Amino acid sequence: MKLLHRVASVVFVCSIFSIFWFFTTNNKDYTICRQLENSSSSFAYIRAISSEADEEEWEEEEEEEDGDKSGHRRKRDPDTASGAGAAVNNLSNSEYRLIQSAIWRASVHGAAAASASSVPPERRLHFKPKRFYPSDDMNSSWVSFKLQINSRHLYSESSDSRISELLNNLASLPIVRVRQKEGGSQLKLAVTLIDGTKAIFKPMRLSREVGTLPNQFYFSDFERHVAEIAAFHLDRILGFRRVPPTAGRYVNITQDIKRLAGADFQKTIFISPDGNLCFHGRCSYYCDTGHAFCGSPDIIEGSMATYLPHVDYEAGRTTFRNPWRRSYSKLRKAQWEKDPDFCRNETLITRQGRWLNDLVDLAVFDFLAGNLDRHHYETFRDFKENGYPIALDNGRGFGRSDRDDISILAPLYQCCRIRLSTLETLLRFVRSSVPLSDRMRRSLANDRLPNVLLEPHLRALDRRVPTVLRTVHKCLVFGDFEDIVVDDGY
Fold first, then answer.
1. SS3 content of the chain, % helix, strand, coil (to 5)
2. How many angstroms separate the CA atoms of 186 and 198, rounded?
3. Whole-Å CA distances, 417 to 38, 73, 360, 363
4. 3 state DSSP class of 126
5. pLDDT tens, 290-301?
6. Model's pTM, two decimal places?
7. pLDDT mean over 449-471
């Protein structure tokens, strides 16, 4: 009887322990990492766990070759694997599990925090009394887009049909007015369509095969029209929706530019030795005969980015200097490049509200696109501290597919902070049978221009997503989960 009682006691204790183990975490990495997160030996332990997980993958992912009699086991090649295996792209099981645990903890912590402090309610942009230009068609998709701008996004998921209509109009409606837009280092044309829609046209300067040269500085790089188009699609897939709707378009230089442009601009239009119609306009850089935009013979493609509400007549915007702005010098480095503790020393990490989380989102977006040219950002003045950075001017992205500049992620690895929703989205890409590159292919297929992004740039997206996740993983190894993965309701 005593023996039976002892056995029952052991079974009861084991059952309680199993339940506690299951609900606390479902993997050994998380428990031990939490115990050792402030210990000098934690990193060594995580490396040991990672090696063990990799060893398990080696054993489980055996790939047999035809005619191979040796019996040796081989790890799956991430470049030739398909489905989820290809998307993981060297993100180990231990890294995945630790990030998954952090997401779970942030979800629980965020739900508890939500009861104590609520996220500001979503509200629409408040327009000035003179809301629209007299020529605006009140039923146009552009006016609808402006009226839908809110304190969370430029447009919502529910407005996809209207955004598709807007993109189609940008690519096809007749152009009735053209003028060169002031400001900026490279040429931009402000165009007006027949329904009153206003957009920024950036013409094609170089073919898609010509990227950033290896010895070229970011501040002297050319802007690419396809980068503007791809940035909009990438932003929408990531769920940020902070890039104005942008579409590719073919423009007739004779009918749409030469006929409508002013006298000063027409002086920069000429016929090349090859018989093509060209123009260069006037700007700070690359606006000369040697850097002209040329049609074939007078047809040129470019990007059409939707105009935001006018800052004077409709809704004001405020421009801020990016704390992680580069020096724009070939000799000097910016302060954040010299100070590893820049985030803490500048007290950036202690700022309240969504500001830091939004800048990390922007850094993740720029890293995936390979854009080093984020020197300033704008917010709608009406939203005040609840406003988000609008991702304008993305033309210097997608310049090099063979290089991943980790310094773009400085806001992430210096502050060790990332939004829960962003981390969940990135993790889905590496465990899904449809990686980010496939989603981009499908989305870009709806654009009028063919091959907006070449395959090397699409494959680079799948390589860069795990890099972001591994950066988060390094923060999780040493830091407090609740301080790193934050559920702020956005």
1. 45, 10, 40
2. 19
3. 18, 40, 7, 12
4. coil
5. 889 999 999 999
6. 0.81
7. 96
Q: How confident is the model at residue 250 (pLDDT cuts 50, 70, 90)?
A: very high
Q: Please list the residues that pair with 179 across neighbouring strands.
A: 190
Query: 202: which 2 tokens?
Result: 């950036």
Say whether 488 is catalytic: no
Q: What is the pLDDT of residue 397?
A: 94
* Local confidence band at 358 (pLDDT 50, 70, 90 cut-offs): very high
What residues have CB less than 8 Å from 193, skipping those under 6 apart? 169, 170, 173, 174, 175, 176, 199
Buried b (16+ CB within 10 A) or exposed e, 218-255: ebebbbbbbbbbbbbbbbbbbebbbbbbbbbbebebee
Instruction: Give residue-wise pLDDT tens across range 212-246.
Output: 878 888 777 888 999 999 999 999 999 999 999 99
- pLDDT, mean of residues 200-219: 87
**Residue 385 dihedral angles phi and psi, to the nearest 5°:** -70, -10
Question: DSSP letter string over 245-299?
Answer: PEEEEEEEIIIIIITTS-HHHHTTEEE-TTS-EEE----SSS-SGGG-EE-SSSE
Q: How far apart are CA 94 and CA 462, in angstroms?
A: 19
| pLDDT value, residue 44 | 38
Residue-wise pLDDT tens digits, 11-57: 454 555 444 444 444 443 443 333 333 333 333 333 333 434 443 44
Q: Is residue 54 within a helix (H) or strand (E), and if so which, with residue range?
A: helix 42-60
Active-site option among 29, 256, 361, 373: 373
How far apart (Å, rounded) are the C-alpha atoms in residues 153 and 354? 13
CA pseudo-torsion sign 270, 201, 168, 371:
positive
CA distance 260 to 38: 66
pLDDT-based confidence at 61, cuts 50/70/90?
A: very low
Q: Which of 357, 370, 457, 356 is nearest to 407 (CA)?
A: 370
CA distance 246 to 170: 8
The CB-side HSE value for 98 (13 A sphere, CA atoms) comes to: 30
